[in-house]
Model the fold of this input.
Amino acid sequence: MVGTLVYQGLVGLSEAMYLWLVAAGLSLIFGVLRVLNFAHGSLYMLGAYLAFYFIRALGGNFWVGLLLGPVVVASVGWALEFFFLRRVYQLDVAFQLLLTFAFVLIFDDLVKLVWGPLYQSVSTPPVLSGAVLFMGRPYPVYNLFILTVGSLVGLGLWLLLERTPWGTLVRAAASDREMASALGVRVPRLYTGVFIFGAWLAALGGALSVPVHTISPGMGESIIIEAFLVVVIGGLGSLKGAFLGAVLIGLLHAYGIMYLPMFELALAYIGMAIVLIIRPWGMFGVREA
Amino acid sequence: MDASASGKLWLRVFVVGIVLVLLAVPQVAGRFWQYLTLNILLLSLFSLSFNLLFGMTGLLSFGHAAFYATGAYATALFLRTGMVPLLPSVIMGTVAAALLAALIGFFCVRHTHVYFAMLTLAFGMMVYAIVWKWTPVTGGDDGLVGIPRGSLSIPGLFTIQMGPLAHYYYFLTILALLGMYALYRISRSPFGLILNGMRENAGRVEFAGISARRYLWWTFTIAGLFAGLAGSLMAPLESTVAPASAHWAKSAEPVMASLIGGPFVFAGPIVGSLIYIGLKEVIVRFTQYWLLIFGAVLLILVLGFRGGVVGFLLRRVARANVPLSPAEE
Done:
């Protein structure tokens, strides 16, 4: 009984890591740029498809795909911010939402156009395939890998934001854009940098998912909706909230599918509804005027 | 007669003219044009209900199809029993959508505009997932098929069979026009004025002692009600309802129609629906990737033409004092 609980918890945790990578980028971009990127799920999907493309094109090496896919998506992120988002910062928030939404439509169809509407998959790299026995059950090595990467990204993000000069500037721009700008911070460049970084995080999540999840044109929409649930629960703009929110959703799915399969889907929404009633700005969010 | 009064007179003449043209369509045009006209009317009503939120209060809903689909499925379920006549089915479908909107709206209007957009998309896709998975009731993947149109009757007075498209054409057209007129009256009422006030400056409206949250909740419910009416009228027309009617791609349609036509003029979404359906009709002959094209159109509209076609024309032709967008006033 306890074994099952712990094991299923570990399964949920590893699934939570993909969600964490997407929610982290989404929340980071919102925290600094004050823009909610609806296309963030599309960047995750693009990361998966490009990793898949590079793995197939360059002789089946998983690591090459994992490296190149997110780098290409990061440059797509640069183009998005530099050529489009920049023009709407001063407008009503609705037009920023609409702009990123336009890219959801564009990327979704573009992916279908290039790779077709069918499911794709690649196999797990040999080093990471197989399973270890954990409490008498086989736990995939790849899940351990994902847990490690997710935790390392979390640690890296914390170090980057709290312990480096760039992180200090990012936090300064997040809390007061005008003051940071007046003190000589090149805010537009910082914004571009944060957006590129957020896009890279989402794409990394997508690329990591390639060996275990099937790749399909609908994967962007399902992850962005889950990421929304995560940031509403955790508080939009808070990385701590994004992490705990992702873990919570991952666990709800893992246990829900086991004990309440009929209501597995509803659990995350019920969780979100409760948070909205008790703390509308999320567990770690800041109350806004 | 001053300029604005004569403008109003011409507007009335224009509206009456359009209504007459709409009523004449089944007499002069075949099934293709009737069907196209009905689709434009349905999207117009759906978009106007979306724009009651967006144009009036600035709240952007990405899950409006949830209410459209609720209306469609509920109406289909009533009609399929064979016991409930057409009009009561449509009314109950509409009410079902309004009830769901009241429930979802309760959660969505509690926070900022960004949260609103996120939550409407999430709840909208929740409804999609329910429709997809609740197979015994919704038919799951296949949806509901073979929905009869039934008949319109007042017992003892008359009975009109709705089977022929021309008959149903009048039923749909009249109800859709009534719905649009109701939305027009709401937007011009004191209630509508308060909504506009909230778009411009929510703080000041709150200072006047008005609970913004309650007003937005009501608006959300009303918007859901009219979206439900559009869905309820759609189901008997198509005689099938599919889960796609609840998908976010369906929610994108009123967004696009409102943006194309112009969200800051009442008739904007109607003009936008006409252009949207016309464009789509042409594009699907060349490519199945029409969302790609509309995404690009949306991009251009957001970057350069935020007043839409109607806003652009009003500025150009009449040099009217129409704001391009509320943020730029």
The first strand of chain B starts at residue 151 and ends at 154. Chain B touches chain A at residues 54, 58, 60, 62, 107, 110-115, 117-119, 121-123, 125-126, 129-130, 133, 248, 252, 255, 259, 289, 291-292, 294-296, 298-299, 302-303, 306, 325-328 (CB under 8 Å). Residues 31-57 of chain B form the longest helix (27 residues).
